[in-house]
Write a structure and sequence with these properties.
Elements: E1 20-32, E2 36-42, E3 47-53, H1 59-64, E4 70-79, E5 94-105, H2 122-127, H3 129-132, H4 136-158, E6 162-163, E7 181-183, E8 191-193, H5 199-207, E9 212-221, E10 232-242, H6 246-264, E11 268-269, E12 276-278, H7 279-286, E13 299-301, H8 314-321, E14 325-331, H9 339-351, E15 358-364, E16 368-371, H10 380-390, E17 397-403, H11 405-422, E18 430-431, E19 433-437, E20 442-445, E21 450-453, E22 480-485, E23 488-495, H12 500-509, H13 514-520, H14 522-528, E24 535-538, H15 542-549, H16 580-585
Parallel strand pairs: 3-5, 6-9, 11-18, 12-19
Antiparallel strand pairs: 1-2, 1-4, 2-3, 4-5, 7-8, 9-10, 10-24, 13-14, 14-17, 15-16, 15-17, 19-22, 20-21, 22-23, 23-24
């Protein structure tokens, strides 16, 4: 190909026997057998074993060279001896007998190994990310990410979408997470914001008369990191469509996701037509609007049981009279599980900040009874009713939580996952998608007891506009939807509110004056006033999609150069100090209080 290589390190096979070739790459691993020195040479494409004899003048040079140094070798391709082949490599039946070498770049002593897949402290991995990315698993993840993005782009074009780029420097958004602000030199005292998402711009594209838009969009949010969210920046497949209803958006996304996951995952898709689960049903059955449908366990409301006189579990009964809910998780045929299994789940729940999980097992000798710490507080008749409500049989067990609805949902949603994993009930060979639909337009803010938007203020309410009961705002549902896979939210989306008068009305319910809406959303309101089509869209997260496809638990494993938990780039030392001269140009002064 050129002076550095005639082939890459994954190309050579038995068909190249006796060819003189040139390879270049990194010294992946050395094995010294005395008279022979074996070197695994690695490049982007793969590995080739090279061998040099001790009578070669380059032997001592290679003997001393450090791992991860970059070399170029020229030599003859020879078949490996029988029994020494490596069937895991495409080049595993040959090796290159080195004739000459050239050192292209020497490596210092490594702060972390590249050979092998050992766990290493995250701060070391991020500081030396360029070394971390040389490791096989990381290298494959980043290649997967590139291939996924290319596939998505091609699929979107096939589906009739056009790719546009929206501004990076824009105005600050009064809704959502914290903005990253950029001071303007030409407009002293004023700031741009990096976009949290191209939300308003993509709606403006529809108002501009285009029909289907998409982009692989960078988004910036000044929020804390977690396993499925990078601090600072992330990428999403942003899309918007004109003259569509909710199901039109679903059809596009389902087509894309099914094709994508069938292409890049060996796992079976549980339902290729994704279930539509109303928000209220999701919260009742799963305790969350991000359910993992691979988990067969369901939550049942059993509050009514604690209104019975023949139930003597007074702790729960008193709480129920004050408005608390009691909900439960049923595990099938767990009568033979040791007491320690149940106690450990209860202990774990307390470690999560809950008061614990009460439990017992349905037993029967002479009569039906509850076997466990609180089973004695339930009569046979109450247990029969409980079995009917929860579809329980003899030998099934029940975990219960009591408290306000949010508290109960929080602990039971994570308990559902914990118990299923303890019982090995989650089928890891599947990918399970679903849509969560029918979100409420409004909810009560628990801090001030006022009405606020529950999800997205720019969404279209469900129903005929003239028949909406604005006096009962909590009853209004919106055309808002989330797509979830394996318990991970990939995206929220909505059919947008394109009618200014309706927008003013909905914002007024949430406490916004018309003047305030005009000031904060001037670009959007102004554009909608000149004739806007019904439109809707969604923006699935690229990072989360690749994380699922790569079977990774942390988003940093599929991100090229991620920040750490404190939003610091340890490799490039960002964020960093700037010179006073730069601040002066921007009309800025530091005012950092110590303490």
């Amino acid at each position: 190909m050129n002076k550095y290589r005639s082939h890459n390190c994954s190309e050579l096979t038995e068909g190249d026997n006796n060819k003189v070739v040139t390879l270049s790459g990194w010294v992946h691993r050395k094995r010294d057998h005395g008279n022979l020195l074996f070197i695994d040479l690695r490049d982007h494409f793969g590995l080739t074993q090279c061998v040099i004899e001790n009578n070669n003048k380059f032997f001592k040079t290679l003997e001393k060279i450090r791992p991860e140094s970059v070399i170029s070798v020229t030599g003859k391709v020879i078949k490996r001896e029988k029994g020494t082949e490596n069937t895991e490599l495409t080049t595993g039946k040959i090796e290159v007998s080195i004739q000459t070498i050239k050192i292209l770049a020497e490596a210092k002593d490594l702060p972390m190994p590249v050979f092998g897949e050992q766990d290493y402290p995250e701060d070391i991995r991020l500081k030396y990310r360029f070394l971390d990315l040389r490791r096989e698993s990381m290298h494959k993840n980043i290649i997967l990410r590139s291939n996924v993005i290319s596939f998505i782009r091609n699929e979107m074009l096939k589906l009739g979408f056009l790719e546009f780029q929206t501004p990076i420097l824009t105005s600050s958004s009064p809704e959502g997470a914290r903005d990253f602000l950029v001071p303007s030199r030409l407009n002293p005292g004023k700031f741009y914001a990096l976009p949290q998402a191209p939300q308003q711009f993509k709606q403006l594209i529809m108002v501009s008369g285009f029909d289907k838009y998409f982009q692989i969009a960078p988004c910036f949010r000044d929020e804390d990191a977690r396993a499925d969210r990078s601090p600072g920046e992330f990428y999403q497949l942003d899309m918007e469509m004109s003259f569509v209803e909710q199901e039109d958006v679903f059809k596009v996304v389902e087509t894309l996701m099914v094709n994508l996951f069938e292409k890049f995952s060996s796992k079976k898709i549980l339902n290729t037509k994704f279930p539509r689960i109303p928000y209220a049903e999701a919260m009742l059955k799963y305790g969350t609007d991000k359910p993992d449908l691979r988990n067969p366990l369901l939550i049942k409301d059993i509050t009514s049981i604690f209104t019975r006189e023949d139930v003597k579990f007074d702790i729960f009964k008193k709480l129920v009279t004050k408005g608390s809910k009691v909900r439960s998780i049923i595990t099938k045929n767990t009568k033979d599980k040791p007491r320690s299994f149940f106690d450990n789940i209860d202990k774990w729940a307390k470690e999560q900040g809950a008061s614990g999980l009460a439990y017992f097992t349905i037993d029967k000798t002479d009569k039906i009874s509850g076997k466990g710490p609180i089973g004695k507080f339930f009569s046979e008749e109450s247990l029969k009713e409980l079995m009917k409500i929860c579809n329980m049989n003899i030998g099934d067990s029940l975990f219960m939580a009591c408290g306000n609805e949010n508290e109960v949902n929080k602990i039971l949603s994570i308990s559902r996952d914990k118990i299923a994993r303890e019982l090995n009930l989650i089928d890891e060979s599947q990918n399970a998608f679903c849509w969560i639909v029918d979100y409420p337009m409004f909810e009560i803010d628990e801090q001030n007891n006022k009405i606020k938007f529950s999800h997205n203020p720019f969404s279209m309410p469900q129903g005929e506009i003239e028949k909406l009961d604005f006096k009962k705002p909590l009853s209004i549902k919106a055309y808002q939807y989330d797509i979830v896979c394996n318990g991970v939210e990939l995206s929220s989306g909505a059919i947008r509110n394109h009618i200014p008068e309706l927008m003013y009305k909905l914002f007024s319910i949430a406490g916004y004056e018309k003047k305030e809406v005009d000031e904060k959303f001037s670009g959007m309101i102004n554009a909608l006033s000149y004739g806007a089509p019904p439109h809707g869209g969604i923006a699935p997260g690229i990072d989360r999609i690749v994380m699922i496809l790569a079977n990774e638990k942390n988003i940093r494993e599929v991100t090229l150069f991620p920040m750490n938990q404190n939003a610091q780039d340890l490799m490039m030392n960002a964020p960093s100090n700037v010179e006073d001269k730069q601040l002066k140009e921007l009309s800025l002064k530091k005012d950092i209080k110590k303490g």
